[in-house]
């Protein structure tokens, strides 16, 4: 009984720690990403609600965003050097074991992703418009697919998606609503990659990924990460940091998770972006305008 109570208390404290911090300064720790996101959302909502009186603050936030974006771009120009050095060190110390370590989750992701891309997207297109839906989808999905592969950006693929939707015959009133929303919220590729990243992180720290509590938490994180992951290239880094903070993973797991995220990003973007087209087809199947 004492053990169960302690376990429940520990789990309850863990849930509370996901959303709250003891001190304001702790918001800016990588271990409290979820609390920071909630604080940022509430601050943005309050700034909009303040109306004209909040205009100076909104200008300040917008200006700060531009400054931090430029700072991040400067850092990211050097980031590949550091990441490459880390990977070189791993190769030198672990050798062939490293490739086996990354090859298994990568192979699993790419096999599952490619099967999902061809089989399930065809199924969704068939459910939307029968055989004609399959033909029209694959006839017009080539350009968005190549765009997603080359840019690794859902936002950059959105114009190609809108063009493909128009050729398929989806009304603009549906395509112009579903595809932009899907670009932000419909992240099936990111959801799949999130599970792989969590699995890799658990391998590194030697924890049991298949524990029921860890699996349920992983599913919850995956849904949330698929929303917060940006449409920009490698925007999933925010989600990765959130995942690491929720699981309280050590810093050693960060580079490995980022490497996996970079390697799966092309296919993840394809699933994220091109999936918006079949989503629009599906909506068009049930909503007539």
TrEMBL record:
Q: Where is the signal peptide?
A: none
This protein's major location comes to: membrane
Q: Name one GO biological process term.
A: dicarboxylic acid transport
Supply the InterPro entries for this chain: Na-dicarboxylate_symporter, Na:dicarbo_symporter_sf
GO MF term list: symporter activity
Gene3D superfamilies in alphabetical order: Sodium:dicarboxylate symporter
Topology with respect to the bilayer? Multi-pass membrane protein
Ordered alphabetically, the record's keywords are:
Cell membrane, Membrane, Transmembrane, Transmembrane helix, Transport
Q: Which domain of life, per UniProt?
A: Bacteria
Q: What is this protein called?
A: Aerobic C4-dicarboxylate transport protein
Q: Where in the cell is it found?
A: Cell membrane
Q: Which residues cross the membrane?
A: 33-50, 71-89, 109-127, 215-233, 253-283
GO CC annotations, alphabetized: plasma membrane
């Amino acid at each position: 009984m004492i053990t169960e109570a302690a376990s429940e208390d520990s789990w309850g404290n863990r849930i509370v720690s996901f959303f709250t911090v003891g001190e304001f300064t702790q918001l800016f720790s990588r271990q409290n990403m979820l609390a920071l996101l909630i604080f940022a959302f509430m601050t943005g909502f309050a700034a909009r609600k303040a109306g004209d009186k909040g205009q100076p603050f909104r200008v300040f936030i917008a200006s700060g965003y531009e400054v931090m974006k430029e700072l991040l771009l400067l850092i990211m120009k050097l980031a590949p050097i550091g990441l490459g050095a880390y990977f070189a060190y791993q190769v030198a110390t672990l050798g062939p074991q490293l490739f086996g370590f990354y090859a298994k989750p990568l192979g699993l992701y790419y096999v599952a992703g490619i099967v999902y891309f061809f089989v399930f997207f065809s199924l969704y297109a068939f459910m939307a418009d029968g055989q004609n839906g399959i033909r029209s989808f694959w006839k017009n999905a080539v350009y968005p697919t190549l765009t997603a592969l080359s840019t690794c950006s859902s936002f950059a693929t959105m114009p190609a998606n809108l063009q493909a939707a128009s050729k398929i015959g989806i009304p603009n009133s549906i395509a112009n609503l579903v595809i932009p929303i899907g670009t932000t919220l419909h992240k099936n590729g990111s959801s799949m990659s999130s599970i792989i990243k969590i699995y890799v992180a658990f391998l590194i720290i030697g924890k049991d990924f298949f524990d029921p509590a860890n699996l349920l938490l992983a599913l919850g994180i995956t849904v949330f990460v698929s929303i917060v992951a940006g449409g920009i290239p490698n925007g999933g880094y925010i989600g990765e940091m959130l995942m690491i903070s929720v699981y309280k993973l050590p810093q050693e797991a960060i580079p490995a998770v980022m490497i996996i995220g970079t390697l799966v990003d092309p296919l993840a973007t394809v699933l994220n972006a091109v999936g918006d087209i079949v989503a629009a087809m599906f909506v068009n199947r049930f909503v007539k305008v």
